[in-house]
Design a protein that fits this description.
The complex is a heterodimer of chains A (277) and B (444). With 277 residues, chain A is of the alpha/beta class. Chain A contains twelve helices and ten strands. In chain A, helix 3 runs parallel beside helix 7 (166-178), helix 8 packs parallel to helix 9 (224-230) and helix 11 (255-262) packs across helix 12 (266-276). Chain A is globular, with a radius of gyration of 19 Å. Classes of the chains: A alpha/beta (277), B mainly alpha (444).
Chain lengths: 277, 444
């Protein structure tokens, strides 16, 4: 386990009053790999995500992000928008959070806010229409077009995001997160609500993000077919603690995991797991 | 009851269409409610007699007329509703009419602009219309300024008049105390107003929706109370008099030797100044419009709109919501400050009475009525609110009634304002408007 880690979670704890949502959780996410965080409902997965992406401040613990150039950032010391801006950690949400009244293209343009803000000379260069700004704007539109093409939404670029079908919205949210040029992409249940065909498309998209962009991915997922197919490493949580970790094959055969998911009835558990794969 | 039975017994296709009995029943109920309500309000009139005792007399004729009106009106409304079909019906409009309408829609803005430019030429001898046009344009500018805060960033600001006041007093004080010219004071007034906008922005950053509205409302009142009570600086309730008139880059528009008329060798007329003021406010308003349109296409403008749509998603994308909100407040306040400086130079006299909550409410009403975020909508709404209000002057005490009724009808037919749809800021293939149903209003 001494590989090249992009994210090291070290003894992370999060308490809400008397409730311990996450208790001394430690795991590592490898660079250019897909790490899945799974566990039954209420296991504390989304809380971990909110700590990593700065929406919660952890009660204790260290979240160490190591960029490609060796630069180390401690995420628990940053807050709010700085996680995305400085640490380059992007996220999607369990319940999709697009800008419904803006077009798909505009959604991807908003994601490039910080780069465009610099290019527009904090708005002033953009206001007078400086050539350097126009070049930067065109580049941003081209990047957005590339992503729209990859997620198969080029035809609907000018439609309001709120008008897109559910599966398209999921993919658009991932594309939007990718437009912030992240080092680590955190996906909160990307396959929720997708049908089998859309799930397969999603797996393909995530694999291509990993291989083409070198972006590391951390995902929470309930859809075992997706988890088993694309994950390089799986971390299983229950009641705020880690109960198992390893390759998908290793984890799915772990009796503790099966017990956590479906109680003690192992036969049923194995049956469900098999159907999943 | 009979109506409902007959309606259900009718063929399935028109089962939704209620029969005559239903309409009559509804009208009868409306008339009954009207009878109960109006019997005391209109039917009996009380007054103090000559010796102070209570006298009363009845006006059953008026009462009957009122109830009959309600009865008839109810039938008409129901018939209209049936003719229109159920709510949400999409009427099939012929293609030719549709393209004609869209052409007309695209022509509205340019035609309006050309007409505005020609107003002083057409109505040169009609001082009243010119004054009214200046007033309308002032509110167009204020509406466009507030539109940045409310329409784009989705921050409900009920104290916009504060920045208008800051701009007006900045110009008045700088001009009367230091003798600075209008053109020097104008940017200063804008900067000072923007500064106060940021100052207001800081404490309200964490507030949303109703709470934000209350604090901004209080801010507007605070500015007004400070102006009233800081007598040594602002003159208190007496206001500031003798505010210098604007000059055409140093050349005064006065009848004297060095006046513009004398220099051009034409006869002096007081209308020259009015026309100059008209073009001045037109230029300021168009500047506001141009800057807003540009800003919408820049990252900051998109961030404002994204903030209105979903603040949490903005944070996840690395957008600094604090500075984004503050720039929205500052930009809106700056335009308010410009408008205030213009107001001061136009009136020549300002007092706290001009900066009451009524003004904030009026400007907000213009923005909401116009359709939040729509530049053309705001301009049309300002024209309707200020110009329309003047139009009904002949109706005397019924003016408010007519005005209120117009507002109610508008809110029924166009609940998202005159122009409710949103135009995208960037597009790949076709520039299609986004339906108002999808666009969030912002929750603060």
């Amino acid at each position: 386990m001494s590989g090249d880690h992009i994210l090291s979670v070290d003894r992370l704890s999060m308490r809400f009053g008397g409730i311990v949502a996450v208790n001394e959780l430690s795991f590592d996410a490898e660079r250019r790999k897909i790490t899945a965080l799974i566990g039954p409902n209420g296991a504390g997965k989304t809380t971990v995500f909110n700590c990593i992406t700065g929406f919660y401040k952890p009660t204790s613990g260290v979240l160490r992000l190591t960029h490609d150039d060796g630069h180390i950032i401690q995420l628990e010391r940053l807050n709010d928008f700085r996680i995305s801006k400085l640490a380059r950690v992007a996220r999607t949400f369990q319940n999709i959070r697009l800008f419904p009244g803006m077009t798909a293209l505009e959604n991807l343009m908003v994601a490039q806010h910080n780069a465009l803000m610099r290019a527009s000379g904090l708005t002033f260069l953009g206001l007078i229409g400086a050539p350097s700004w126009r070049v930067a704007e065109q580049a941003a539109i081209d990047l957005a077009r590339t992503w729209l093409e990859r997620i198969g939404l080029l035809d609907r670029a000018d439609d309001a995001a709120g008008n897109l079908p559910y599966g398209d919205q999921r993919r658009l949210e991932i594309a939007r997160a990718m437009c912030t040029d992240p080092a680590l992409l955190c996906l909160d249940e990307p396959a929720a609500g997708l049908n089998a065909r859309e799930s397969a498309g999603l797996s393909e998209l995530l694999l291509s993000i990993r291989s083409d962009h070198g972006t590391s991915i951390l995902l929470i997922e309930h859809d075992m077919s997706v988890v088993m197919e694309i994950s390089d490493h799986v971390v299983v949580m229950d009641y705020g603690v880690k109960i198992a970790e390893g390759t998908p094959q290793h984890v799915r055969d772990d009796p503790r995991v099966i017990a956590a998911y479906l109680g003690a009835d192992e036969e049923e558990a194995i049956a469900v797991m098999e159907r999943g794969t | 009851m009979a109506g409902r039975v007959s309606a259900t017994l009718a063929s399935p296709q028109d089962s939704r269409v209620p029969g005559i009995a239903f309409i009559f029943k509804k009208a009868l109920i409306s008339a009954l409610v009207a009878l109960v309500l109006f019997s005391l309000m209109i039917g009996v009139r009380t007054d103090a007699g000559p010796d102070g005792q209570l006298t009363y007399w009845t006006r059953f004729g008026d009462l009957a007329a009122m109830v009959a009106t309600v009865f008839g009106g109810s039938i008409v409304v129901e018939l209209l509703r049936q003719w229109w079909g159920p709510v949400g019906t999409v009427r099939v409009v012929p293609a030719s009419v549709q393209s004609g309408l869209s052409l007309a829609g695209r022509l509205v803005a340019p035609v309006l602009l050309v007409f505005t430019f020609l107003v002083p030429v057409i109505f040169y001898n009609e001082r009243y219309i010119l004054d009214l046009a200046i007033l309308v344009l002032t509110y167009v500018m204020l509406g466009w300024g507030l539109n940045v805060v409310v329409g784009l960033a989705g921050l409900l600001d009920l104290g916009y008049v504060a920045f208008y006041a800051v701009g007006a007093y900045s110009y008045a004080l700088l001009a009367t105390n230091f003798g600075l010219s209008f053109w020097v004071c104008l940017p200063l007034a804008g900067i000072l107003a923007a500064f106060w906008g940021v100052l207001l922005g800081f404490p309200v950053l964490r507030l949303r929706g109703d709470y934000l509205a209350i604090v901004t409302l209080a801010f507007g009142e605070i500015i007004r109370l400070v102006i009233i009570n800081w007598q040594s600086l602002t003159g208190g309730p007496n206001g500031i008099t003798g505010i210098p008139r604007p000059t055409l880059f140093g050349i005064p528009l006065s009848p004297g030797e060095d006046g513009l008329a004398a220099r051009l060798g034409i006869e002096f007329s007081p209308t020259h100044r009015i026309v100059f003021l008209f073009y001045l406010i037109l230029a300021l308003a168009l500047l506001t419009n141009w800057v807003t349109i540009r800003l919408r296409r820049l990252p900051i403008g998109r961030a404002w709109e994204a903030l209105r749509e979903d603040e949490i998603a903005c944070r996840a994308l690395g957008i600094n919501t604090t500075t984004t909100k503050l720039t929205a407040f500052a930009t809106g306040a700056m335009f308010g400050g410009f408008a205030g400086a213009f107001f001061a130079t136009r009136q020549g006299f300002i007092s706290p009475e001009s900066f009451t909550f009524h003004e904030s409410a009026l400007v907000l009403a213009i923005v909401v009525l116009g359709g939040m975020g729509s530049q053309l909508g705001v301009a049309l709404a300002a024209l309707a609110m200020i110009g329309g209000f003047e139009l009904f002057r002949g109706l005397d005490q019924y003016r408010m009634l007519v005005f209120g009724m117009a507002m109610v009808l508008l809110m029924i037919w166009r609940p998202r304002g005159l122009i409710g749809h949103r135009a995208p800021t960037v597009f790949l293939r076709h520039n299609q408007a986004i339906s108002a149903d999808l666009v969030n209003e912002g929750r603060g």
